[in-house]
Amino acid sequence: MVARHIADPTTLNNGVKMPWLGLGVWKTKDGEEVEKAIQYALRAGYRHIDTAALYQNETGVGNAIAKADIAREDLFITTKVWNSDQGYESTLQAFETSRKKLVLEYVDLYLIHWPVKGKYKETWKALQKLHKEGFVRAIGVSNFQVHHLEDILQDSDIVPAVNQVEYHPLLTQQEVHNFCKANNIQLEAWSPLMQGNLDNEVLVELSEKYGKSPAQIVIRWDLQNGVVTIPKSVREARIVENADVFDFELTTEDMANINGLNKNHRYGGDPDNFNF
């Protein structure tokens, strides 16, 4: 399904519905900055907010949600367990800390932020417990490569619902994407806009062709590739612009041209060579 509206969801492997487009709040300051960004996003129709313990803004996210005149069941809130909190008991404690900061009875999606060697399987067991007890509607992972996913699947009775990875035209992660499709794991993109590095000839040409910004071209490409995307901004005009991607469709040829930009180039960390 190609999303036609900002509130259109994908259905995860456990039946939970997750909006295709969300607001990421990485590097957004706690307090007024993150609260205003979420206020702008909700006003523009966003219903999906992605945060993490590492971002240190869960309190502000919680405050913004509490102030919003939107039913809780109409929102989709994601947070993540950080590397230093991984392990079984420590993950359970970390989740409770996040949940209290967010002032939520439950979280829609809880992710393992990075595959910390020797710890992520115990962390996954904790996530399964949280899911079974109803504190989390869906559980997943972030920055997992194929071999990490295979390791999880070996002895888990729950398949991760989501794998959130760095994904953009210069890093299409096709092997990971194919594996996720084959195992009904929803791929989600962080840093979809290449941290603002959008001055690319192909993207600029398509921007002129469709009368859209390079950022809008990339977000549309994400959606047509079946990838949930969470562009980050604190500016209202940019937040609104990022959501204005449902009134056009890239041709098959243009999709292929963007796919062809892949250089396996990372702006963030490499999961196999990360300083955990």
Automatic annotation (TrEMBL):
Query: What's a Pfam family in this record?
Result: Aldo_ket_red
> What are the protein's UniProt keywords?
NADP, Oxidoreductase
Q: Which CDD domains match?
A: AKR_AKR5G1-3
Which domain of life does the UniProt lineage start with?
Bacteria
The record's annotation in Gene3D superfamilies points to: NADP-dependent oxidoreductase domain
Specify the NADP-dependent oxidoreductase domain's residue ranges. Answer: 21-262
Report the SUPFAM superfamilies cross-referenced here.
NAD(P)-linked oxidoreductase
- So where does this one cross the membrane? none
Q: Name the InterPro entries on file.
A: AKR, AKR5G, Aldo/ket_reductase_CS, NAD(P)_OxRdtase_dom_sf, NADP_OxRdtase_dom
UniProt-listed PANTHER family: 2,5-DIKETO-D-GLUCONIC ACID REDUCTASE (PTHR43827), NADP-DEPENDENT OXIDOREDUCTASE DOMAIN-CONTAINING PROTEIN (PTHR43827:SF3)
Family under the similarity heading: Belongs to the aldo/keto reductase family.
> What is the name attached to this protein's record?
Aldo/keto reductase
> What species is this protein from?
Alicyclobacillus dauci
